[in-house]
Write a structure and sequence with these properties.
251 residues, 7 helices, alpha/beta, globular, 7 strands, Rossmann fold
Length: 251
């Protein structure tokens, strides 16, 4: 059977890299889009990447997305499915609500949400030409619930309001697009992960775990079984859904 090709935008990021490696190890072709060429070169030294092709670019810009798709077709003939793991943010992303600057707020919402919409547009146009495909967006538990602000008390961490705004909107655009194109053999879903482990302070991890049922903070590779399922034929009747994977944080 011909290998399927998965395109991962933000494929060297916290979530994207784990998915890149898992799909490559599970006999998929992987088209990786990311700005981090240094990280790719380090990865290339460590691994046999014959089934991974890297495209350097900002995958939330119209022209770059088109080039990304064309690069995938050139190398793999076809792109079967895609997931958008891009996470653009300004340097003042973590400013407190009282200190937010309008220019930064506008840029964060435009880049993340607007970019996700344009990414969807370009890939849906491509999927229409080939008769179908699957698209996954990454939302968050902060898109379905208010943050647990007590977890952040006394720490140089926050959950920005722009993050909640964008991630809740990602769920909305997923439903919109799934209904608009569902009869065209295009499946569009999103997943809402809980917090992902990334060198957070121990006190934060401890507080966070109290709100969960077993593990607490997830590791990026914990998302792979769900993403893999959504890209499989077994998920053919799942469309327009937001699937939460958070170890019970949102209960």
């Amino acid at each position: 059977m011909k290998k399927k090709t998965i395109a991962i935008a933000g494929g060297l990021g916290r979530i994207g890299l784990a998915l890149t490696l898992k799909f490559a190890q599970n006999n998929f072709n992987v088209l990786v889009g990311d700005n981090n060429i240094k990280k790719y070169k380090l990865l290339k030294k460590k691994l046999d990447l014959n089934n991974i092709k890297f495209y350097k670019g900002n995958l939330l810009l119209d022209k770059e997305i088109k080039k990304f798709i064309n690069y995938g077709i050139k190398n793999f003939k076809k792109i079967d499915h895609t997931i958008c793991c891009c996470y653009p943010k300004t340097k003042d992303w973590n400013d407190k609500f009282e200190n937010i600057k309008q220019n930064s707020l506008n840029k964060n919402i435009s880049d993340h949400l607007g970019g996700s919409i344009i990414y969807s547009q370009k890939f849906i146009k491509y999927f229409l030409t080939q008769g179908g495909g699957k698209l996954i967006h990454i939302s968050s538990i902060q898109g379905v619930s208010a943050p647990k602000f007590e977890h952040y008390e006394g720490l140089k961490m926050s959950s920005p309001i722009a993050y909640s705004a964008v991630k809740s909107a990602i769920i909305a655009i997923t439903r919109y697009l799934a209904k608009l194109y569902g009869k065209k053999n295009i499946q569009i879903n999103c997943i809402s992960p809980g917090g992902i482990k990334e060198n957070q302070p121990k006190i934060f991890a401890k507080r966070y775990r109290r709100s969960c049922l077993s593990k607490g903070l997830l590791e990026s590779h914990d998302l792979f079984p769900l993403v893999s399922f959504l890209f499989s034929e077994d998920s053919r009747y799942i469309n327009g859904q937001n699937i939460i994977i958070d170890d019970g944080w949102s209960l």
